[in-house]
Specification:
Layout: E1 4-7, E2 19-24, H1 30-40, H2 46-49, H3 54-58, H4 62-70, E3 77-85, E4 90-99, E5 115-123, H5 132-146, E6 154-160, H6 164-172, E7 175-184, E8 187-197
Parallel strand pairs: 5-6
Antiparallel strand pairs: 1-2, 2-3, 3-4, 4-5, 6-8, 7-8
Helix pairs in contact: 1-4
């Protein structure tokens, strides 16, 4: 997968105009994977955006983060993409999980097609609106479509009913509601909507 270079928004201070490289995470990146995930779990919308808590993630052993960086998700293909500044700081991330037809998806539900499921979307607040999230999605979607096996026929994600900011972004880049919703884990009074790439 080639690296993608993206200039940040020119509207802000010069240090925010640094170039980013969007690239796949490697096993050696595990400490930065941990740091960025903990930062994401401090975000004000973390409790509706992620199925994890800061305290739970902070308590994980190094082996957990090493496996996560290596893409270990049992039999599932997983690849995390990050946006890295020239100074090495990570400003955003998205993970693509490849769900196989006839097997359970990440939520344990059966799926009838080979599909990509995008999860763990996060961009640092100061980089929102700069095009960074779009570049991350472009890399993740390209990865899914370039796989020889399985051939992905569908790209999807879930968004909480109260996360309008995220849903607006997803719609802007071509995702639409599929009509399917699921109860939000731990809160049966709210739902997550499935969005698919049109």
């Amino acid at each position: 997968m080639p690296e993608i270079r993206l200039p940040s928004s020119p509207r802000d201070a010069e240090d925010r105009r640094m170039n980013h490289v969007v690239r796949a995470v490697t096993a050696e990146d595990w400490q930065q994977v941990k740091e960025l995930r903990l930062e994401a779990l401090r975000d004000p919308v973390a409790e509706i955006a992620f199925l994890d808590t800061y305290d739970n993630a902070a308590a994980q052993l190094d082996e957990f983060w090493q496996e996560r960086a290596a893409g270990a998700r049992g039999e599932m293909i997983a690849q995390q993409f990050i946006a890295e500044r020239m100074d090495g700081r990570w400003d955003g991330s998205v993970t693509v999980l490849i769900e196989r037809a006839g097997r359970g998806d990440v939520l344990g539900r059966p799926t009838d097609v080979d599909q990509a499921h995008l999860v763990g979307v996060f961009v640092r607040r100061e980089q929102r609106g700069t095009g960074l999230a779009r570049a991350l999605f472009d890399a993740a979607i390209a990865f899914a479509h370039e796989l020889d096996e399985p051939k992905v026929s569908r790209v999807r994600l879930y968004v909480h009913q109260d996360n309008q900011r995220a849903e607006a972004f997803y719609r802007k880049i071509g995702f639409t509601r599929s009509g399917r919703s699921i109860p939000f884990p731990g809160d049966e009074s709210s739902v997550e909507h499935e969005l698919v790439l049109g």
